[in-house]
Amino acid sequence: MMSPPLSLDEEVRLYTTNAEREKYESQATLFGVIVALDYLERAYVRDSIPASEYSPACTRLLSQYKTMLKLVSDAVPSVEEFMTRYRMDHPAALHRLKVGVPATVEHSSEAGVETGKWVAETTQSFITFMDALKLHLRAKDQLHPILQELMTGYARFKGSKDWEGRSRLVGWLITLNGMKASDEITDEQSRQLLFDVDHAYAEFFRSLSSGKADAS
User: 151 — alpha (psi -120 to 50), left (phi > 0) or beta?
Assistant: First the structure.
């Protein structure tokens, strides 16, 4: 018995379950992050984007890459294998992913390299924590380690003790400390926490621009 002919107008479905759909969507997002990072790197090399815009954009993409790689780790053993599988020719992006920090940090002067590294790491911590909330992570054992790492980096900067965002983040750290590992914050708490972290992130960058965020 012959099978029915295929319709060229019929959409081909790559998945049959929600889990498979999320897997393919996550891989598509990873693909997009790599392409975007390659464009950003090339734009920076050609002086098409200033360092002040390049650094936070690159840090955000690196953080998103790390988040997405964790979500697809069962299907993607390495970024090199992923890029080979989908015939991605993006050497600038691959180099940046291997280095793990923006070019502004990689090529900093000897005097400023440590501070530049701390800025990049703290920025990544902010983005990683906000992404975790947006991905609906709610349990203490999921959020507390990331927030603790964020606060460790945040405290390296002299002016942080006077920043309004610091007291808010400390308050949330105390809240999470008082919970059991499996306890979860509510959706309302998550929304407020995201607002407070976003506020602290904006304040951190304003301090960088004004020179008030020197590392201690």
Answer: alpha
Residue 27 exposure: Cα atoms within 13 Å on the Cβ side: 20
pLDDT, block means (10 residues), the chain with 216 residues: 60 69 89 97 94 83 85 88 95 90 67 68 89 92 92 83 89 91 94 95 80 59
**Using CA atoms, how far apart are residues 112 and 173, in angstroms rounded to an integer?**
30
Q: Which residues contact 128 (CB under 8 A, 6 or more apart)?
A: 63, 66, 67, 146, 150
| 3-class secondary structure per residue, 43-58 | HHHCCCCCHHHHHHHH
Dist CA 83 CA 94 (whole Å)? 9
CA–CA dist 49, 42 (Å, integer): 10
The answer to whether 77 touches 67, Cβ cutoff 8 Å, is no
Is this prediction's pTM over 0.70? no
Residues 6+ apart with CB under 8 A from 212: 159
The answer to whether the beta carbons of residues 207 and 159 sit under 8 Å apart is yes
For the record, the structure tokens of 49 come out as 């984007």
